[in-house]
Structures are given as C-alpha cells and as structure tokens.
Amino acid sequence: MQARQDRIEQVLASMLPDPAIAPTRLHEAMRYAVLGGGKRVRPLLAYAAGEAVGADPARVDRVAAAVELIHAYSLVHDDLPCMDDDVLRRGRPTVHVRYDEATAMLVGDSLQSLAFEVIAEGTIADDPRVERKMVAMLARASGSRGMAGGQAVDLDSQGKILSVPELEFMHGHKTGALILVAVLLGARCGNPSDAEIAGLGRYAKFVGLAFQVVDDILDATASTETLGKTAGKDADADKPTFVSAMGISRAKGFADELLADALASLDIVAERGERLREIARYVVARDR
C-alpha cells in the first residue's frame, strides 16, 4: 500500500500545474486540495485491479490519477457551505476555509477538467475504441448518473428516513460509482476477459457499499482527530445513514457480509486478486 500511495503521490504532483504558473493562487489551491493527505483507496484499487489482469502499471498511473482528481474535486465541493458545510478535511482546513469559496469552486472545476485531460492524453489501452469507452465510463461515474447524482439524492434526503435499499441506491451512486470505475478502469488498462470484468465489477460494488457503511459507523463512533474531519456531522445534519437505519451492531455485521461477498467475487482472478482482497479487508477493518 505504501509503495502505491507514494507512487500515486508522485504521479499527481507531476500532473498538477506548478504553483509558480499563473494563476498562481488557483494552482496552489489545487495542489493543496490533492496532495499530502488521504488514503488513496481509489488509486490503490485501480493498481490492484490492473495487477490482477497483468496491466502495465504506467498505464494505470493515468487512470488512477484521473479517478483521484475527480474524488478530490468532489470533496472540495462537498465541503462548501452550500453542501455539507465542513471546515476540516484530512486533518486540515477545507479549501474554502484555507482560501475562499470562489477559489474552492474553481479548484473543483479545474480538478475535474484536469482528470479528463490526464486520461485522454496518454495511452491507457491497446485499442483506441476501448480508450474512448474508458473516458465515457469516467464521465458517467462522475455525473448525474453517478457521483453527482448520489450527492443530489443525499442533499434531498436530509431529515428523511430512508430504507436500507434506498441508502444502497444513494451510496451506490455517491460513493460506489467512483470506486467501481476505479476498479474497471484499472482492469481495462490490460486485456481482461468478460468474465474477469464481471467478477471485478461485482467485487467493486460490494467494496463500495462496505466503504460507505464503515464510514457511517466511524462518523458515529470515532473522534475528529481519528477521522481527520468533523465527527458526528451526519447526526448533527439529520442525515439518513446505515447506522440510523440499522444500528451500529447490525451495520458492522452488514459490512462483514459485504466483505465476504466481495472476496467471493474474486475467484475468477484467483491468486492474482490478492491485493484486491487485502484492500477489501482494510476498507472494512479500518479503525474498528
């Protein structure tokens, strides 16, 4: 994990604009938003999926960076006062607090654009038709039928009681879509079979949902210092969560069930999927 985290940090640092280039304040804020923090779960998943099908890691660099840039942009916008209104992210002041709201908006916009520049600039698959499909996959996962759509449902759900299937739909878009596309893009940097893509897709869906279930548990049980962001925000904002729907004990059991399903989905890649198995276990076990 540490080796891959170090690798993606270097890749991101090389792809982000130099802060000495005008507009300097915007470029400085973009680097502040992306570098020096975060678990890099999505890039880790992309690298591990690539490894499972024998993809060139240099190709995976680009898709891993693109997905992480989209993720970073979403965090910058999610923290804004008009969204989740948070002042702390990764143990540091959020971008709109460190800079200002207008700069934070532009940082998010610029990181999203940069993600598509990064994925479109280099060779990421043998077949140009597959490359075009990969760009479209990232766009769909980021937009109204993916992450942004999930955030819209989340905002509309504040103060409401959602069933577990409704929570699964919301977070399958808000959190799961980007995790799914990280795995599938990493795999498509190689030459996976249809069966391998199907198995990896199932794995990613289970891991994405487990990630959110554990996030909800940690928001209710961990400290601000442990999380690196404000603890208890979901309850304070009257947001529906897996904890509010199921209770902490059942939510932990649900996360364990999702982990078992994720691991079973990797039979198709046998021992080549061991990194993916390790990441799934890490996602569910973190800080428990």
How big is the Rg? 18 Å
Walk across the major sheet and give the strand order. Answer: 1-2
The CATH class designation is: Mainly Alpha
Give the integer mean of the pLDDT values.
Answer: 93
Q: With helices defined by DSSP (H or I, 4 residues minimum), what is the helix count?
A: 16
Given as residue ranges, the uncertain stretches (5+ residues, pLDDT < 50) are none
Strand content: under 5%
Looking at CATH, which topology would you report? Farnesyl Diphosphate Synthase
Number of domains: 1
Shape: globular
**What order do the SSEs take from the amino end to the carboxyl end, as H and E?**
HHHHEEHHHHHHHHHHHH
- What CATH architecture label applies? Orthogonal Bundle
The helix fraction, in percent, is: over 70%
Let me know the number of strands: 2
Q: How do the helices and strands line up, and which of them pair or pack?
A:
Layout: H1 2-15, H2 24-34, H3 41-52, H4 57-78, E1 88-89, E2 92-93, H5 95-98, H6 101-121, H7 128-142, H8 147-156, H9 164-174, H10 176-188, H11 194-221, H12 224-227, H13 233-236, H14 242-246, H15 248-264, H16 274-285
Antiparallel strand pairs: 1-2
Structure description:
With 288 residues, this protein is mainly alpha-helical. The chain has a single domain (2-285), classed as Farnesyl Diphosphate Synthase, CATH 1.10.600.10. The chain contains 16 helices and two strands. It has helices spanning 2-15, 24-34, 41-52, 57-78, 95-98, 101-121, 128-142, 147-156, 164-174, 176-188, 194-221, 224-227, 233-236, 242-246, 248-264, 274-285; strands spanning 88-89, 92-93. A two-stranded antiparallel ribbon has the order 1-2. Strand 1 and strand 2 (92-93) form a beta hairpin. The protein starts with a helix and ends with a helix.
